[in-house]
Amino acid sequence: MSGSRKLLILGGVALAALGMLYGLHYAVFIEHQTLDGMGSSLAKGFVAAAQRQTPEAHAAIDAYGHSKYDYVRQIDIHSHWIGLAMLMFVLGVIFDSVDFSERIRFWLALALLIGSVMFPLGVILQTVSHGGFVPSAMAVAGSGLVIVAMAGAALGFARQAA
Amino acid sequence: MGARRILIFCGIALIAGGMLFGDIFAVFVLHQNGGRTGETLLAAAQAAAAQDSAGVGDAFHRIGGLLEDRGTKVDTHVHMIDAGYLALLLALLQPYVALPSQRRKRLAKVFIAGGVLLPVGIFLIHYVGLEYSPFPVIGWASVLADSAGALLIIALLGEGWGLWKYLRGERSDAPEAELPRDASWERRALLSGGTILVLLGFLHGSWYAAMDLYKHEAAEVSILQGMADAAMANDGAAIGQSVNQYGMLAGERAVNIATHSHFIEFGLLAMLLAFVQPYVFLGEMWKRRWVQVLLAGSLILPVFVLLELRWGLIAGGIADVGGLFVIVALVAMLVGVLRYSGRLDSLEGVR
C-alpha cells in the first residue's frame, strides 16, 4: 500500500475516532446544558418583555445569541471531523487512481489531513475567543488546504479519465 | 448472498429509503412545521405584548415540541443515509476482514438490523414520548434507538476485530475476493463527478462561512431584540414584521446549510457507488444512463435548493425532482445488484 493511501486511511480512522469521542463527550457533558441554556434564555427574554424590563430582555436575548454561537460551532466540529474522515477513508481506497506521481499524491494527502484537523479545530477555538484572529485564521487556512487538496484529487481523477 | 452483497444491497436500500423519507419530509412536513413555528413565535410575542408571562412560557413550550418534531425527522433522514454509507464502506473492507464467512454474514445482518432500527426509533421519539416508560426522561423509542446504536457498535467492533486479525497476518478460510480494479466509464464518471460535487460543497460552505454566517448570527439577535421591543411597545404591526424577518432569516440559513451538506453527501455517495458498479448487473448502456441520472440529480437538488431564496416554490419543486432522480437511479442500481448472478460468491465458495 502506498504512503499516501496509508496516510489517508490511518489518518481518516484516527480523525473519525477523534470526532466520535468529541461527540460522545459533547452529548454527555455539554449538549443538554447548552440547549437548556438557549431555550431558557429566549423564554426569559420574552418573559422580561412581558414584564416591561427592557435591559433584562435584551441581556437574555444576547445570552441566547452567545449560547447559539457556541452550539453551532460545537455541532460543526463533530460533523466536520467525521465527514472529512469518511472522505479521507474513501479517497484512501482509490488514491492510486489519482494520476500524479506518488510524491505529489503524498503531498495532497498530507494537505488533506492537516486541513481536516486544522479547519474544525479553528472553528471550535472560536468558542474560546469570540471573533479572535488566530482561530479564524486557522479555520480559513485549514479549509483552504482541504479545498486545494480536493481540487488536486479531482484533477488527478480527470487526468486518468482523459 | 455473501456478507459483501448483503452490505451493498442493504446499504443502497437504506440510502434510497433515507432519501425518499427526506423528500416526503421536505414536501409534507418541513414548510408546514416552519409555518407553525412562526405562528407560535408570533403568539409568544403577542403574549409578551399583553403582559401574559404564562402565555409566553406556554408558547415556548409548544415551540420546543415543534422543534423536536422537525429535529427527529431530520435525524431519521440523516441516520438512515449515514448507516447506508457505512454499510457500503464495510462492503469495501470485507476482503480484509479475517473472519469465517458465516460470522461475516452474521455481522453484516446485525449491522443492517441496527441501521434499520436506529432511524425507526428516532422517528418514533416524538410520537411515543414518555408513555409507559419506567425512566424519568428516556422514552421507549429512545431505548429502541439506543439499542439499535449498540447493535451498530457491536457489528463495527466485530469488523474491527476481523481487520485487526488480518493486519496480524491471519486469513479467512473463505475470503471475499478483492473488488475488481476496473476502469470503466461508470466508475470514472462517478469518481470524477463525486470529487467535483464534494469540492463544490466545500467551496459553497467556505463562501457561506466567510460572507453570511456572522451576518446571520448578528441579525438573529437583532431581530429577536426588535421583536421584544415591539412587544414592550405593544406594536402589533412591528411584531408581525419581526416574525416575518425571523422566518426569512431561518429559511436563508436552512437552504445554505442544506446546499452545503447535500453537495458533499451526494459527492461521497457517487464515490462509494463507483466501487459497487461491478455488482450492478445491467447492460452497459443502462449502467451509463443511471450514472448520468444520479449525477444530474446530485447537481440539480443542491443548486435548486439554493435558488429557493429567489424562485421560491418553483425552485423547491425542481429540487425535489432532482432528489427523485437520485432515488430512481439508486433503485435501478439496487435492481442491478439484485440481478447480479452471484458469480463472484460462487467462485469464492460462499454458502
Quick structural gist:
The complex is a heterodimer of chains A (162) and B (351). Chain A has 4 helices and no strands. By secondary structure, chain A is an all-alpha fold.
Proportion in helices of chain B: over 70%
What does the average pLDDT of chain A come to? 87
**Ends apart, CA distance between termini of chain A:** 25 Å
Regarding quaternary structure, what we see is heterodimer
Fraction in beta strands of chain B? under 5%
Provide an overview of this structure.
The complex is a heterodimer of chains A (162) and B (351). Chain A is an all-alpha fold and 162 residues long. Chain A has one domain (3-161). Helix content of chain A is 88%, strand content 0%. Chain A contains 4 helices and no strands. The radius of gyration of chain A is 21 Å and the shape is elongated. Chain B has 2 domains: 1-176; 183-351, Up-down Bundle (Four Helix Bundle (Hemerythrin (Met), subunit A)). The model of chain B has no long low-confidence stretch (mean pLDDT 88). At the A-B interface, α1, α2 and α4 of A face α1, α2, α5 and α6 of B.
List the helices and strands and how they pair.
The complex is a heterodimer of chains A (162) and B (351).
Chain A: H1 3-50, H2 54-94, H3 102-125, H4 133-161
Helix pairs in contact in A: 1-2, 1-3, 2-3, 3-4
Chain B: H1 3-49, H2 53-93, H3 101-128, H4 140-167, H5 185-232, H6 236-276, H7 284-311, H8 313-339, H9 343-348
Provide key terms for this protein.
heterodimer, A: 162 residues, mainly alpha, 4 helices, elongated, B: 351 residues, Four Helix Bundle (Hemerythrin (Met), subunit A), 84% helix
